[in-house]
Amino acid sequence: MDVANPASSRAVLIGSSAYRWLTPLPSVRANLEDLRRALTDEDIWGLPPANVMTIADATDRVAVYETLREAAGAAGTDGLLLFYYAGHGLIHGGDLILGLPGTDPQHPDEQALAYATLRDATRLSRSPRRVLILDCCFAGRAGTAEMSAADALRRLAHSDTEQACLLLAAGANRPASAPAGDRNTAFTGALLDLLTMGSELSDPVLTVQTVADEVDRHLLASGRERPELRLSNRAGDIPLARNIRIRRRNLTGSVLEASKEVTDPELRGGRMLVLRHDDTGAIGVRLNRPGDPLPEALHGWRTKITAPKRLFDGGPIARDAFIALVRLRAGADQPIRFTAVKGNLGSLPLSDAQPSVRDCVADLRIFVGYLGWGPGGLEQLINDGILNVADVSAPRVTFARDGAP
């Protein structure tokens, strides 16, 4: 599981920090800047900057509605529509009103954003996934006027296939917190801490439910107002951000070593080479488990090459298949079907044993089976200290006698 497709996703961030009749909220402007930076960070979500619309201290509410409708229409079916508001929340006729700089608390409906209108604009999205985040007082009133909570959820998600959620900074009759002197409001600050520093959980991706739980835990510990979360159609499972605490750099070509505490028999005492690592997961082979003698059918590879006398046990997956790792001779051209792992270290099909290919190869090692990890699985093992990245030469270790350096 990974985050929604950044190219097909859209985010609209709205904030009001300066008011004519209401108390200024200077931290709201920092909220917008910091949240935009987090959402466009490739290690967190990686939204293209053009896909994040930021509106600070808007004076034209119609223009705000139009921006949200445009973003909703641009979100694709494999993307996510995210709407965020920070500022003063007011109540008019039982409905939630989101303040703009010119909002008059005596007549809030005249120069403010009606939550109901904003919610309806999000329904224009082709994406089945919508996340609405409100950091304002009385946020819990969102969508609850003149109806039960269950009715509100049915209105929020008008089909069985849609997933929608509301993450709210405060309850229906509770104020949100903007501590004086803090860069961010309390709720958004907790959200940003989670996004930018990650979670101690081992999950490589943070779902909406996880985000809500972690933010709630943070605010509870600091004595702040606790947030609310409303979900429809398992919207809590929506992947919202990557857990930045889990290492995500490309480890292809790296040598990993199992810690001494490892009890998993497939990893215990193991030294492994990562053959591929990307968003879909990773595969690798164990380097230090010599196996059966080399089959006679593969002896054609032994001419002019440091003769591999044995197969090596690469891992428990695909035990009926061979993986041939080679190191090319210095200055040799890469064979047509050579797949590089790191530098002149890579793989070749075992069927390519013809002399022209063998002449390019300095070293060969053949593995039976391999190790595999799903998205984020390898990062999780490293983050938990089960595997460590070794500071060694991958080619030297790969072709060392019996897998020893």
From TrEMBL:
Instruction: Name the Gene Ontology molecular function terms of this record.
Output: cysteine-type endopeptidase activity
Pfam assignment, any one: Peptidase_C14
GO biological process entries: proteolysis
Q: Where is the Peptidase C14 caspase domain?
A: 10-229
Q: Which InterPro entries match?
A: AlgH-like, Caspase-like_dom_sf, Pept_C14_caspase
Entries under NCBIfam families matching the protein: caspase_w_EACC1
Name-wise, this protein is: Peptidase C14 caspase domain-containing protein
